[in-house]
Amino acid sequence: MKNKSPLVVANWKLNGGTDLICASVSKFLRHNFKVNIGIAPPYVYLGDMANFLKNSSIMIGSQNISKFESGAFTGETSGQMLKEVGCNFCLIGHSERRQVFLENNASCQTKIARALEANLMPIICIGENEQQYELGLTKHILYKQLHESLQGQDLTGKELCIAYEPIWAIGSGKAASPESVQSIHAYIYEEICTIFDKETADKIRIIYGGSVNKKNAAELLAMPNIDGLLVGGASLDPEHFSEICELANKQAANATVQTNAEAVLA
Ligand code: 13P
């Protein structure tokens, strides 16, 4: 399953401003990361960020997308608009949007379709809350989130990513263990193989988010079913976030060496 180079995404949420943009841009323009890196700042900074980073490999994405294409929908931003200002991806169905703004699997399904139409890679966020976790309902919740939002999507020639973010791990300092994420990602993979064909499912990255930092990133990335990371709090410090990206870079380089060695020995 791990034949994709890792994807590390920063979700700034409702944080950051000109200072963080300047610090991040100057940090990231100096690096030449081989892994895929994305930054999702608040909407108003997307155009500037995309312009500043246009000669780099860093991807820019939004934290949300409208389920409408145009019209009298005050406060909304469409997929076409996001694409036009230089976005490559958008987060969809983050647990904060589900909890605070009452988004659900049906609205996520429409938003995923809108993102795909606009050639943006949707990063669809799923995960159980603490009570569901304690009651052993994790797989049940994930099953519903996956099937209800992904059923019927046409991924021909498109990219999609799934971020498993257990709500109890977000901002709590209690990341899920690499072993448990590994097994949940295996379950997610099994389910997406039933929604799409195996070839399509194999191209979908499954990344993890929830209290990721430079201390736990390497262990998480070392797991075969973890294709990358979605980072909140730790991404607000450009130094810290770039250390996480360095770890992903190193991990990807080791994996390439190993694959080459296996090919020689085969
Ligand atoms: P933290 O990394 O702050 O736990 O946030 C995770 C998250 O919600 C990323 O989308």
From TrEMBL:
PANTHER family: TRIOSEPHOSPHATE ISOMERASE (PTHR21139:SF42). GO terms for biological process: gluconeogenesis; glyceraldehyde-3-phosphate biosynthetic process; glycerol catabolic process; glycolytic process. It comes from the Bacteria. The keyword Cytoplasm applies. The keyword Isomerase applies. One of its GO terms (molecular function) is triose-phosphate isomerase activity. Belongs to the triosephosphate isomerase family. The active site is at H94, E165. Homodimer. Pathway: Carbohydrate metabolism; erythritol degradation; Carbohydrate degradation; glycolysis; D-glyceraldehyde 3-phosphate from glycerone phosphate: step 1/1; Carbohydrate biosynthesis; gluconeogenesis. Its main location: cytoplasm. It comes from Catenovulum maritimum. This is Triosephosphate isomerase. Its EC number is 5.3.1.1.
